[in-house]
Amino acid sequence: MRFSTISKQSTLLSLIKKESPELKSLLERISETSKATAKELETLATIHPPLNLKVTHLPRIELAARDSLDKETSKQILNSHGVDLEFNMVSSQLAAMNYAAHLARSLVVVETNPRRKEFLQRTDRKFSELHGLVFKMILTRYQH
Predict the structure, then answer these.
(1) DSSP sequence for 107-141
(2) What phi, psi does 85 have (nearest 5°)?
């Protein structure tokens, strides 16, 4: 899972550009949630049956598409200012929260270990809630 990537992006964006207090608070919450989730996943990966978190099982073209999307999103954020910057940051987090929730939801179906299954259900709920908060921010702050 890419929880550590979500966390790193949120933290780096806060260092590079100045954002509103509301956005900063939301990005900090996303970052902390992502860090805690990644840490718990690393611990749970060691229980039986163990998981190899380094192997993605994704085709090269999928990895290339993700890399391209990450680079384009970073470029948009770095080249924007003011309201456009905030909107680009929030919309990138909206996509990330949606992806994280759906990935956890999909993995619950195939997970055989009860502890990991419960972790994935909690992860789905946490990132679905964050997705809702990000969506609400978009509706209230950036609607024309």
Answers:
(1) HHHH---HHHHHHHHHHHHHHHHHHHHHHHHHHHH
(2) -60, -50
Contacts of the segment 62-71: beta carbons below 8 A, 24+ positions apart:
70/5
- pLDDT digits 0-9 by tens, 50-88: 888 888 888 999 999 999 999 999 899 889 888 888 888
Are 110 and 43 in contact by the 8 Å Cβ rule? The answer is no
How far is 38 from 59, CA to CA, in rounded Å?
23
Q: What is the SS3 assignment for 104?
A: helix
CB 108 within 8 A of CB 121: yes
User: CA 127 to CA 37: how far, in whole Å?
Assistant: 10
pTM of the model: 0.84
| Type of residue numbered 135 | F
